[in-house]
């Protein structure tokens, strides 16, 4: 079906009179439009690169400074350059010299303003102030950061230029390296509730030895790196935590994001794919043009945007010792998987992006295709779900030649990957829905792609994302914009189709061709066996907790995140009868190229609260919540424990020096791994008038064999969705049991406030 629509640029036949050459004007027109699109994109990126590089400067600001300088020098006969203009006049015309000096002055102003901004953004004392209290330092800092005169000056100088996505990158501070002494102190404090007195004394001895002997030497190298590199953690974190892992990334690394919880925009699979794919491509266009508004904490503090760069046209490439991340500057196609077949679908025609109904038309053609998978094609993607070394061997030996190379390049260089799943998923079975997004059949997602869009038979959908290139909030930002566009801005007709009309001359999808030898088929079968065993061991449970939400929690002057984390501690203690090392991800995007830090949520204060819960100790709850907020702020401001310890360990390995302390610390299992998926663009959803448009959030697989993975999203004022995962093979865990414990812990903790409120009355 698809092959018949392949475009041919020209045809020729050989006859008695020589060669008869017939050019296809339509094909040549498409070549011309494609080249035009490419050059436009290059120009936009070049222009954006200059604008980002000189921000807060701009062309109007440059002209203002230059005119002011030349006017002062020419009409007032005053040389502001202190003789430099005269010296230049001996070698170049006076006007050229004036332009050179004026340009230098403009650049000096840019760097001065950027240095001041970087200095202001390096101070984070405002985060540690008690809620509702303003110290004189915070007042001074806010005055300097938001001084109306300075803001007006910046606006005039920048020509009222709106900051683009990457405008603040050069103004963000570098992640600081904590002192070894502070990291040792915070680490020992974090493990105290988990160790006996004897075990803690032993760990104190190891930490003290490390602090006095090997630690300072390793610290010197980290300091040197922090002065030279943009971020002393992120490149090593990406390489050693993600890319060097040789086990499966399915379940262990990739994560998922779900559809609306209550809304069903259409029952037509092709139509839902049409709107969603179009919305994703619109987001990519805004990303390419840097037109996405940079995320600002409290509408004032800019966050790092570097992770957005590799969202699209990106694939993880397997290697024997380490994987690599391959990112293309542009891609004009996607790859669609359906019933074991792969199709290349062009996203542009007539020099423009395909409209939703046209994309639906392409999906309908794929769904109507009755051809069978080629030998070995159906389960090919299982290679991306299994161990990395067999996948690297198969790719290098058999898939980088002939038609396989062309097809593999098409997949790996696609903007993103789409699966038209032949199953139906419904909110009544959220647990099964989560497992399908997390691993599917283990061969119907290309787990190496940065983004997999999965559209089910009944129109429900979701994402599966590879983790090495960015963290979940980046994908969440995309997903929020896509969901907000789908039913409202793009919409559907009364019978469920995308709005608009099919294209009468649109070339169809192209079927990818494979030649899978028997050796690869054996490798595929082995990888599939590993992946299926891993997938079958996942126990997922989703809880839409609607008894109360952040609105009520805030009324009691408690951080919603701290409240939930304490509920998780209480639930875990009730579930297992003991405390455990707890991981909570915190972003470090206040710094350039920042990714995450660990909040060690199990503290002395949280344990004291849990132990006293049967006595209903509200005071201990508030103390534990304050401690958690303190730990979270330390993590956000570069004063966490784990990334510093991780980098110290990497340096020790480079130097060939073993540290018993670091080896023991980094081998401790995280039996409770948690992460909040923040709702970053709440203004996109009118949950008051349209409460059905709430997101379900997303989740990830368990980190420890005998532990739990918990992701949660706080939606609006009255809903918190929990995504719980564990392993069926562990006798210690049960996701449903833990979910019941979380629900009860939340209710019991709220009851403490309610009882206190009644007592006060």
UniProtKB/TrEMBL annotation:
Where is the protein situated, by its record's location annotation? Mitochondrion outer membrane
Q: Which domain of life is it from?
A: Eukaryota
What EC number(s) has UniProt assigned to this enzyme? 2.3.1.21
Tell me which GO cellular component terms the UniProt record holds. Answer: mitochondrial outer membrane
Ordered alphabetically, the record's keywords are: Acyltransferase, Fatty acid metabolism, Lipid metabolism, Membrane, Mitochondrion, Transferase, Transmembrane, Transmembrane helix, Transport
Q: Name one GO biological process term.
A: fatty acid beta-oxidation
The residue ranges crossing the membrane are 50-71, 91-117, 138-160
Membrane topology, record value: Multi-pass membrane protein
Which residues lie in coiled coils?
none
Quote the catalytic residue positions.
Answer: 467 (proton acceptor)
Ranges where the Carnitine O-palmitoyltransferase N-terminal domain occurs = 1-47
Associated pathway: Lipid metabolism; fatty acid beta-oxidation
Q: Look up the signal peptide feature and give its range.
A: none
The enzyme class is transferase
> Known Pfam families for this protein?
Carn_acyltransf, CPT_N
Recorded catalytic activity of this chain's protein: (R)-carnitine + hexadecanoyl-CoA = O-hexadecanoyl-(R)-carnitine + CoA
All residue ranges annotated as the Choline/carnitine acyltransferase domain in the record: 175-744
GO molecular function per UniProt:
carnitine O-palmitoyltransferase activity
As for family, the record states: Belongs to the carnitine/choline acetyltransferase family.
Q: What protein name is recorded for this chain?
A: carnitine O-palmitoyltransferase
